[in-house]
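A further point concerns the way the authors explain their paired sequence and structure data. The central task, working out the C-alpha coordinates from the amino acid sequence alone, is never made concrete. I therefore recommend that a typical entry be quoted early in the introduction. An entry of this sort, consisting of the sequence and the corresponding C-alpha coordinates, reads as follows:
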Amino acid sequence: MKKLVTVLVVLLLATSLFAQGGSESKSSAGAVLNFKLAENQPANNPISKGMLMFADLVKEKTNGTVLIDVYLDAQLGNENETIDQVQIGALDFARINTSALASTADEVGVFTLPYIFTSTDHKYKVLDGAIGQGVSDSLKKYNIIGLEYWEAGSRNFYSTKKPIKSVADIKGMKVRVQQSEVAIKMVELLGGAATPMSYGEVYQGLQTGVIDAAENDFVSYYTSGHYEVAKYYSLDAHMAPPAMLLMSQNSWNKLNDSQKQAVREAAKEAALWQRQAMMDFQNESRAKVEEAGCQIFEVDGKAFQKAVSPIYDLYPQYKSIIEQIKAVN
Protein backbone atom coordinates (compact mmCIF):
# COMPACT_ATOMS: atom_id res chain seq x y z
CA MET A 1 0.00 0.00 0.00
CA LYS A 2 2.83 2.42 0.90
CA LYS A 3 4.48 1.75 -2.48
CA LEU A 4 1.20 2.51 -4.24
CA VAL A 5 0.79 5.73 -2.25
CA THR A 6 4.35 6.79 -3.11
CA VAL A 7 3.72 6.21 -6.82
CA LEU A 8 0.48 8.19 -6.65
CA VAL A 9 2.25 11.05 -4.86
CA VAL A 10 4.93 11.22 -7.56
CA LEU A 11 2.32 11.16 -10.34
CA LEU A 12 0.24 13.86 -8.67
CA LEU A 13 3.27 16.07 -8.13
CA ALA A 14 4.32 15.64 -11.76
CA THR A 15 0.81 16.44 -12.98
CA SER A 16 0.66 19.47 -10.69
CA LEU A 17 3.97 20.84 -11.94
CA PHE A 18 2.99 20.30 -15.59
CA ALA A 19 -0.33 22.06 -15.10
CA GLN A 20 1.26 24.97 -13.24
CA GLY A 21 4.28 25.42 -15.47
CA GLY A 22 6.56 24.62 -12.53
CA SER A 23 5.05 27.20 -10.15
CA GLU A 24 2.53 27.16 -7.34
CA SER A 25 -1.09 27.84 -8.13
CA LYS A 26 -2.50 30.68 -6.03
CA SER A 27 -6.07 31.30 -5.01
CA SER A 28 -7.56 34.09 -7.09
CA ALA A 29 -8.77 37.26 -5.42
CA GLY A 30 -12.12 36.75 -3.79
CA ALA A 31 -12.17 32.98 -4.37
CA VAL A 32 -13.19 30.81 -1.43
CA LEU A 33 -11.30 27.59 -0.73
CA ASN A 34 -13.20 24.81 1.05
CA PHE A 35 -11.09 22.23 2.87
CA LYS A 36 -11.69 19.14 4.99
CA LEU A 37 -9.92 18.19 8.23
CA ALA A 38 -9.93 14.69 9.73
CA GLU A 39 -9.84 14.09 13.50
CA ASN A 40 -10.36 10.70 15.17
CA GLN A 41 -11.28 11.95 18.65
CA PRO A 42 -14.82 12.75 19.91
CA ALA A 43 -16.14 16.28 20.36
CA ASN A 44 -15.45 16.42 24.12
CA ASN A 45 -11.71 15.87 23.69
CA PRO A 46 -9.54 19.04 23.88
CA ILE A 47 -7.81 17.94 20.68
CA SER A 48 -11.13 18.08 18.82
CA LYS A 49 -11.94 21.44 20.39
CA GLY A 50 -8.53 22.66 19.27
CA MET A 51 -9.25 21.56 15.70
CA LEU A 52 -12.53 23.47 15.70
CA MET A 53 -10.69 26.52 17.07
CA PHE A 54 -8.10 26.18 14.31
CA ALA A 55 -10.83 26.18 11.65
CA ASP A 56 -12.45 29.27 13.19
CA LEU A 57 -9.11 31.10 13.37
CA VAL A 58 -8.30 30.30 9.74
CA LYS A 59 -11.67 31.66 8.66
CA GLU A 60 -11.10 34.82 10.70
CA LYS A 61 -7.51 35.41 9.62
CA THR A 62 -8.26 34.85 5.92
CA ASN A 63 -11.41 36.98 5.96
CA GLY A 64 -13.49 33.96 5.04
CA THR A 65 -11.47 32.99 1.97
CA VAL A 66 -10.35 29.68 3.53
CA LEU A 67 -13.05 27.53 5.14
CA ILE A 68 -12.36 24.24 6.91
CA ASP A 69 -14.96 21.59 7.73
CA VAL A 70 -13.81 19.47 10.68
CA TYR A 71 -14.85 15.80 10.73
CA LEU A 72 -14.58 14.22 14.20
CA ASP A 73 -14.82 10.61 15.44
CA ALA A 74 -12.80 9.17 12.54
CA GLN A 75 -15.60 9.88 10.07
CA LEU A 76 -13.06 10.10 7.25
CA GLY A 77 -11.10 6.99 8.27
CA ASN A 78 -8.55 5.87 10.84
CA GLU A 79 -5.22 7.64 11.22
CA ASN A 80 -3.28 5.51 8.74
CA GLU A 81 -6.02 5.90 6.15
CA THR A 82 -6.14 9.68 6.53
CA ILE A 83 -2.35 9.94 6.26
CA ASP A 84 -2.58 8.23 2.87
CA GLN A 85 -5.39 10.57 1.83
CA VAL A 86 -3.34 13.63 2.80
CA GLN A 87 -0.36 12.34 0.83
CA ILE A 88 -2.27 11.95 -2.42
CA GLY A 89 -4.27 15.16 -1.97
CA ALA A 90 -7.63 13.48 -1.39
CA LEU A 91 -7.79 15.11 2.07
CA ASP A 92 -6.60 18.59 3.01
CA PHE A 93 -5.81 18.35 6.75
CA ALA A 94 -5.46 15.61 9.35
CA ARG A 95 -4.43 15.57 12.99
CA ILE A 96 -2.25 12.50 13.44
CA ASN A 97 -0.39 10.99 16.38
CA THR A 98 3.29 10.63 15.57
CA SER A 99 3.08 6.92 16.49
CA ALA A 100 0.84 6.40 13.47
CA LEU A 101 2.70 8.88 11.26
CA ALA A 102 6.01 7.06 11.84
CA SER A 103 4.85 4.18 9.63
CA THR A 104 4.92 6.64 6.71
CA ALA A 105 7.55 9.16 7.83
CA ASP A 106 10.34 7.41 9.72
CA GLU A 107 11.79 10.73 10.86
CA VAL A 108 9.03 11.35 13.43
CA GLY A 109 9.54 7.92 14.98
CA VAL A 110 12.19 9.23 17.35
CA PHE A 111 9.47 11.13 19.24
CA THR A 112 7.63 7.88 19.89
CA LEU A 113 10.49 6.07 21.63
CA PRO A 114 9.72 5.08 25.24
CA TYR A 115 10.90 7.63 27.79
CA ILE A 116 12.56 9.84 25.16
CA PHE A 117 11.29 12.95 26.96
CA THR A 118 12.12 13.59 30.61
CA SER A 119 9.23 16.01 31.20
CA THR A 120 6.57 18.02 29.40
CA ASP A 121 8.83 21.10 29.49
CA HIS A 122 11.64 19.09 27.95
CA LYS A 123 9.32 17.79 25.25
CA TYR A 124 8.26 21.24 24.08
CA LYS A 125 11.76 22.66 24.20
CA VAL A 126 12.59 19.90 21.73
CA LEU A 127 9.46 20.19 19.57
CA ASP A 128 9.34 24.00 19.44
CA GLY A 129 13.06 24.26 18.77
CA ALA A 130 15.39 23.40 15.92
CA ILE A 131 14.95 19.64 16.36
CA GLY A 132 11.18 19.76 16.03
CA GLN A 133 11.38 22.15 13.08
CA GLY A 134 13.84 19.90 11.28
CA VAL A 135 11.61 16.86 11.69
CA SER A 136 8.56 18.84 10.57
CA ASP A 137 10.39 20.11 7.48
CA SER A 138 11.36 16.54 6.57
CA LEU A 139 7.69 15.73 5.88
CA LYS A 140 7.77 17.70 2.63
CA LYS A 141 9.33 14.72 0.86
CA TYR A 142 6.10 12.82 1.61
CA ASN A 143 3.92 15.55 0.06
CA ILE A 144 2.96 16.67 3.58
CA ILE A 145 3.25 20.03 5.34
CA GLY A 146 3.78 19.80 9.09
CA LEU A 147 1.95 22.75 10.65
CA GLU A 148 2.25 22.30 14.41
CA TYR A 149 2.81 19.86 17.28
CA TRP A 150 -0.12 19.11 19.58
CA GLU A 151 -0.31 17.63 23.07
CA ALA A 152 -1.42 14.00 23.16
CA GLY A 153 -0.68 13.25 26.81
CA SER A 154 1.46 10.61 28.46
CA ARG A 155 0.44 7.08 27.57
CA ASN A 156 -0.17 4.53 30.31
CA PHE A 157 -1.43 0.95 30.36
CA TYR A 158 -4.97 0.05 31.41
CA SER A 159 -6.42 -3.43 31.73
CA THR A 160 -9.59 -5.45 32.26
CA LYS A 161 -8.83 -8.58 34.27
CA LYS A 162 -6.07 -7.55 36.65
CA PRO A 163 -4.05 -4.42 37.39
CA ILE A 164 -0.60 -3.90 35.93
CA LYS A 165 1.54 -3.12 38.96
CA SER A 166 4.85 -4.39 37.62
CA VAL A 167 6.50 -5.43 34.37
CA ALA A 168 5.77 -9.07 35.21
CA ASP A 169 2.01 -8.38 35.17
CA ILE A 170 2.05 -7.63 31.44
CA LYS A 171 3.50 -11.02 30.52
CA GLY A 172 1.09 -12.86 28.23
CA MET A 173 -1.44 -10.01 28.07
CA LYS A 174 -2.92 -9.11 24.69
CA VAL A 175 -2.24 -5.38 24.57
CA ARG A 176 -3.78 -3.13 21.94
CA VAL A 177 -1.27 -0.76 20.38
CA GLN A 178 -1.37 1.67 17.49
CA GLN A 179 -0.06 0.46 14.13
CA SER A 180 3.42 1.48 15.22
CA GLU A 181 6.57 -0.59 15.04
CA VAL A 182 7.97 1.08 18.17
CA ALA A 183 4.81 0.40 20.19
CA ILE A 184 4.74 -3.22 19.04
CA LYS A 185 8.38 -3.83 19.96
CA MET A 186 7.93 -2.06 23.31
CA VAL A 187 5.06 -4.34 24.36
CA GLU A 188 7.00 -7.39 23.20
CA LEU A 189 9.99 -6.35 25.34
CA LEU A 190 7.62 -6.16 28.31
CA GLY A 191 6.45 -9.71 27.63
CA GLY A 192 3.03 -8.86 26.23
CA ALA A 193 1.37 -9.82 22.96
CA ALA A 194 1.13 -6.59 20.96
CA THR A 195 -2.18 -6.36 19.11
CA PRO A 196 -2.46 -3.50 16.57
CA MET A 197 -6.05 -2.31 16.32
CA SER A 198 -7.93 0.76 15.09
CA TYR A 199 -8.90 3.18 17.85
CA GLY A 200 -12.61 2.79 17.15
CA GLU A 201 -12.41 -0.97 17.77
CA VAL A 202 -10.72 -0.80 21.18
CA TYR A 203 -13.85 -0.43 23.34
CA GLN A 204 -15.43 -3.58 21.93
CA GLY A 205 -12.09 -5.37 22.00
CA LEU A 206 -11.74 -4.72 25.73
CA GLN A 207 -15.38 -5.52 26.38
CA THR A 208 -15.33 -8.86 24.56
CA GLY A 209 -11.89 -10.01 25.69
CA VAL A 210 -10.27 -9.83 22.27
CA ILE A 211 -7.64 -7.76 24.09
CA ASP A 212 -6.73 -7.68 27.78
CA ALA A 213 -5.26 -4.20 27.90
CA ALA A 214 -4.60 -1.02 25.97
CA GLU A 215 -2.57 2.13 26.48
CA ASN A 216 -3.41 5.79 26.20
CA ASP A 217 -3.52 9.03 28.17
CA PHE A 218 -6.15 9.91 30.79
CA VAL A 219 -8.15 12.11 28.41
CA SER A 220 -8.58 9.42 25.77
CA TYR A 221 -9.20 6.77 28.45
CA TYR A 222 -12.08 8.90 29.73
CA THR A 223 -13.57 10.44 26.57
CA SER A 224 -13.54 7.12 24.69
CA GLY A 225 -15.37 5.37 27.53
CA HIS A 226 -12.62 2.76 27.83
CA TYR A 227 -12.70 3.24 31.60
CA GLU A 228 -16.13 1.59 31.59
CA VAL A 229 -14.68 -1.76 30.50
CA ALA A 230 -11.07 -1.53 31.73
CA LYS A 231 -11.08 -0.45 35.36
CA TYR A 232 -7.35 -0.68 36.13
CA TYR A 233 -5.07 2.21 35.07
CA SER A 234 -1.32 2.13 35.75
CA LEU A 235 0.87 5.24 35.75
CA ASP A 236 3.96 3.97 33.95
CA ALA A 237 4.11 6.92 31.49
CA HIS A 238 5.94 4.83 28.90
CA MET A 239 5.42 7.23 26.00
CA ALA A 240 4.51 10.85 25.38
CA PRO A 241 4.43 11.07 21.58
CA PRO A 242 3.08 14.37 20.28
CA ALA A 243 0.41 14.66 17.65
CA MET A 244 0.85 16.76 14.52
CA LEU A 245 -1.50 18.85 12.44
CA LEU A 246 -0.73 17.99 8.83
CA MET A 247 -1.72 19.57 5.54
CA SER A 248 -1.48 18.11 2.06
CA GLN A 249 1.16 19.78 -0.10
CA ASN A 250 -1.44 19.82 -2.89
CA SER A 251 -3.80 21.89 -0.75
CA TRP A 252 -0.98 24.09 0.55
CA ASN A 253 -0.11 25.01 -3.03
CA LYS A 254 -3.62 26.42 -3.50
CA LEU A 255 -2.98 29.12 -0.88
CA ASN A 256 -1.46 32.51 -1.57
CA ASP A 257 1.32 33.79 0.71
CA SER A 258 -1.05 35.69 2.98
CA GLN A 259 -3.26 32.64 3.44
CA LYS A 260 -0.25 30.43 4.18
CA GLN A 261 0.86 32.81 6.90
CA ALA A 262 -2.69 32.88 8.32
CA VAL A 263 -2.88 29.08 8.40
CA ARG A 264 0.44 28.82 10.24
CA GLU A 265 -0.55 31.52 12.73
CA ALA A 266 -3.88 29.81 13.36
CA ALA A 267 -2.17 26.45 13.87
CA LYS A 268 0.24 27.94 16.42
CA GLU A 269 -2.47 29.76 18.38
CA ALA A 270 -4.79 26.76 18.46
CA ALA A 271 -1.96 24.40 19.43
CA LEU A 272 -0.84 26.58 22.34
CA TRP A 273 -4.42 26.71 23.61
CA GLN A 274 -4.87 22.96 23.15
CA ARG A 275 -1.68 22.04 24.98
CA GLN A 276 -2.83 23.81 28.13
CA ALA A 277 -6.43 22.64 27.76
CA MET A 278 -5.22 19.06 27.38
CA MET A 279 -3.14 19.25 30.55
CA ASP A 280 -6.05 20.75 32.49
CA PHE A 281 -8.42 18.09 31.21
CA GLN A 282 -6.00 15.32 32.17
CA ASN A 283 -6.64 16.17 35.83
CA GLU A 284 -10.40 16.41 35.28
CA SER A 285 -10.43 13.09 33.43
CA ARG A 286 -8.54 11.37 36.23
CA ALA A 287 -11.07 12.63 38.77
CA LYS A 288 -13.97 11.44 36.59
CA VAL A 289 -12.68 7.89 36.16
CA GLU A 290 -11.87 7.60 39.86
CA GLU A 291 -15.43 8.68 40.66
CA ALA A 292 -16.60 5.90 38.34
CA GLY A 293 -14.74 3.31 40.41
CA CYS A 294 -11.56 2.90 38.41
CA GLN A 295 -8.39 2.10 40.32
CA ILE A 296 -5.24 4.11 39.62
CA PHE A 297 -1.88 2.52 40.39
CA GLU A 298 1.49 4.20 40.87
CA VAL A 299 4.16 1.92 39.44
CA ASP A 300 7.95 1.86 39.33
CA GLY A 301 8.56 3.72 36.08
CA LYS A 302 12.29 3.03 36.24
CA ALA A 303 11.63 -0.72 36.08
CA PHE A 304 9.53 -0.25 32.93
CA GLN A 305 12.16 2.06 31.46
CA LYS A 306 14.90 -0.50 32.07
CA ALA A 307 12.83 -3.30 30.53
CA VAL A 308 12.26 -1.40 27.28
CA SER A 309 15.71 0.24 27.03
CA PRO A 310 16.98 -2.31 24.43
CA ILE A 311 14.57 -0.76 21.94
CA TYR A 312 16.99 2.14 21.40
CA ASP A 313 19.55 -0.27 19.91
CA LEU A 314 17.02 -1.28 17.26
CA TYR A 315 16.99 2.21 15.72
CA PRO A 316 20.58 3.24 14.96
CA GLN A 317 19.26 5.86 12.52
CA TYR A 318 18.07 7.87 15.51
CA LYS A 319 21.37 7.84 17.41
CA SER A 320 22.41 11.38 16.51
CA ILE A 321 19.01 12.99 17.10
CA ILE A 322 18.58 11.09 20.39
CA GLU A 323 21.84 12.64 21.59
CA GLN A 324 20.57 16.07 20.52
CA ILE A 325 17.28 15.53 22.39
CA LYS A 326 19.11 14.47 25.54
CA ALA A 327 21.27 17.59 25.32
CA VAL A 328 18.24 19.90 25.40
CA ASN A 329 17.66 21.31 28.89
Remarks:
- The longest strand covers residues 232-239.
